[in-house]
Design a protein that fits this description.
Rossmann fold, 20 helices, elongated, 4-stranded antiparallel beta sheet
Length: 596
């Protein structure tokens, strides 16, 4: 899988992702900021109270003053607790809302990508970005940034107060800052790089697990459980190894910061103690100064820890930026054309050429076809001839390299994707259902369809009979990908779903080619109802489909080499005759259905 990266951003670059999504909540954030400053101010006042306690109450032996100071501190800290509650709630609720919007934006960026985008990416890796990467950003938004503000105010406020208290001792307190900044810068870069690697490797492991679970029958049929276990273990071990390297970097950062911070406290204690012995400093002032020094040391350690968290979030944000800022592969028309009503369903290919990548060979070359309203056209050819590709250009799953594909005379690139695809129905050879109820899968064809309409299309697709046979009827859960249903049942639900859509153009990937005779008859009758009056393009595998088509297009090597009906092509087309004979021979000249 491609590991393309956008140019590295500074650690604060992730705020560019959040600021537009934070603006609707600026009132709550401002209130949280005010509360945070109030709570921090109370914390900064504590050492001053302790100095007063030591220098006034203790030295003077004033018990009543001690009582007043104790009660005042209890009241002050009670107020601080209420303030902290309000600040914490506002920050947490805002972070939940912002990250929810971020996840929605990320999902939107993915769900509108064309099928070709997902051809080269693992689904598990993409879902990891929605869950894991956004979770890292949420942690920074909910805990990191408030802690940054709190500790920043503590650091600046404490530095001002110690400077006012005793400028000479302040120099000893500041001794730790240059060393801490240098270590944080060096190790922070490594933490960011390792965190990005961890997210990438974790996404690969999750993607592998998802593939195994969705293909569990294949895994167990080939008895590959042990092999998959070893493979997953290797991927998880790679995540662990990267995590251990990150742990070393973060532990090194924490250790260096701790040593430098508390080393500065020792310097303050030593120098301050010497000044007390000389009578140049009172014990209360020294204790207050030490408390401020501890506050400064704690702020430095917290800021260093936040720097590590920020590096992780920056790596996660970079991965999210890759998707949200990714330019669309299919460009939307600036002034979308609106098809005239009713849509006739006339399809035209004019000089169409297509390839899946700039370095890949042409899949289609010079396709010229006109399909009239209500006409049924079958596409035949060997594997790789371009049948599926040709059909996928109608709903604009891909853009042509040269030429035009037109619907009712309008280039599909000039029609909005929603407008275009609302008039096209697709029934694949292997339909995939969502892991919900039968009703939900049917209603996916037209949201808001009534119960009567759903039952009507189910009857037309010969699905109502087996649906009502389930204990929960239309509320029956079909399982992941519809695994609890047979192939024929899934196919009939897929057909009913398209019926509910009432498309003008229908694309069928020979929906009955892999069914038993009884299921095939039911599905074929359902398809006859679906195709009635609609322009239909069939990727044909069966002789019966080919014979009943209004026209047959024979594809070979990405080009249309002949066209006509079955009798004409069998008589004059060498390619068609070869396809027919090969499939006929495979059928051992029996009367059962044969593929083509």
């Amino acid at each position: 899988m491609s590991k393309k990266r956008y140019p590295p951003r500074q650690a604060w670059g992730f705020l560019r992702l959040l600021i537009p999504r934070l603006s609707p909540y600026k009132g709550a954030l401002a209130a949280a900021g005010v509360l945070l400053l109030l709570a921090t101010g109370i914390g900064l006042a504590f050492p001053l109270v302790v100095r007063e306690l030591l220098d006034s109450a203790f030295l003077a032996g004033d018990a009543s003053l001690l009582n007043r100071i104790a009660l005042g501190l209890l009241g002050l800290f009670a107020v601080q607790a209420v303030i902290n509650f309000g600040q914490s709630y506002l920050t947490a609720s805002t972070s939940e809302r912002v990250v929810a919007v971020l996840r929605q934006d990320l999902f939107k960026a993915l769900v509108y990508q064309p099928p070709g985008f997902f051809d080269t990416r693992r689904v598990g890796e993409l879902t990891s970005r929605i869950s894991s990467d956004t979770g890292l950003i949420q942690g920074v938004l909910r805990f990191g940034i408030p802690e940054l503000v709190r500790q920043g105010v503590f650091l600046i406020g404490a530095l001002i107060l110690v400077t006012v208290t005793h400028a000479h001792l302040t120099l000893a307190t500041l001794a730790a800052i240059p060393f801490t900044a240098l270590v944080g810068w060096i190790l922070g870069k490594r933490v960011r790089r390792l965190s990005t690697n961890i997210q990438d490797r974790l996404a690969e492991a999750v993607s592998r697990a998802e593939q195994v679970f969705t293909q569990i029958q294949v895994v167990q049929a080939f008895t590959r459980e042990g092999w998959e276990e070893e493979r997953f273990r290797g991927e998880v071990d790679a995540v662990r190894d990267e995590g251990l390297r990150r742990a070393v970097a973060r532990a090194g950062l924490a250790g260096a910061v701790t040593f430098s911070a508390f080393g500065a406290i020792v310097l303050v204690l030593w120098e301050g103690g010497r000044l007390v012995l000389e009578g140049a400093l009172t014990p209360g002032t020294l204790v207050a100064f030490l408390l401020y020094a501890v506050t400064i040391a704690g702020a430095i350690m917290s800021l260093a820890g936040f720097w590590g968290n920020l590096q992780e979030a920056a790596g996660a944000a970079e991965r999210i930026f890759e998707l949200i800022e990714r330019p669309p592969e299919l460009r939307a028309p600036e002034a979308p054309a609106i098809l005239s009503r009713p849509v006739r369903g006339e399809v035209m290919y004019e000089g169409v050429s297509f390839r899946y990548g700039p370095e890949l060979p042409l899949v289609l070359d010079g396709i010229e076809v006109e399909i009239g309203q209500g006409e049924r056209v079958a596409l035949v050819g060997s594997s790789g001839a371009g049948k599926s590709t040709m059909a996928s250009l109608i709903p604009r799953f891909y853009d042509v390299e040269n030429g035009e594909v037109r619907l009712d005379g309008v280039d599909v690139r000039r029609i909005g994707l929603q407008e275009l695809r609302s008039h096209i129905g697709i029934v694949p050879q292997e339909p995939m259902l969502f892991a919900g109820t039968i009703r939900e899968n049917l209603a996916y064809g037209r949201l808001g369809a009534s119960d009567l309409e759903i039952r009507e299309v189910a009857r037309m697709a010969h699905a109502h009979e087996f649906i009502t046979g389930f204990p929960d009827g239309y509320e029956q859960i079909v399982g992941e990908r519809g695994v609890t249903l047979s192939a024929g049942q899934r196919q009939r639900i897929a057909i009913a779903r398209v019926m509910l859509r009432k498309p003008a153009v229908l694309i069928l990937d020979e929906a009955s080619s892999s069914l038993d005779a009884e299921s095939e008859a039911l599905v074929q009758d359902a398809l006859d109802h679906l195709m009635a009056g609609r322009t239909t393009v069939v990727i044909a595998h069966r002789l019966s489909t080919v014979i009943r088509a209004d026209g047959i297009l024979v594809l070979d090597g990405g080009a249309i080499v002949d066209r006509g009906n079955h009798a004409e092509l069998l008589h004059r087309s060498e390619v068609y005759h070869r396809l027919y004979r090969r499939q006929f021979d495979d059928a051992l000249a029996s009367t059962r259905e044969v593929d083509i």
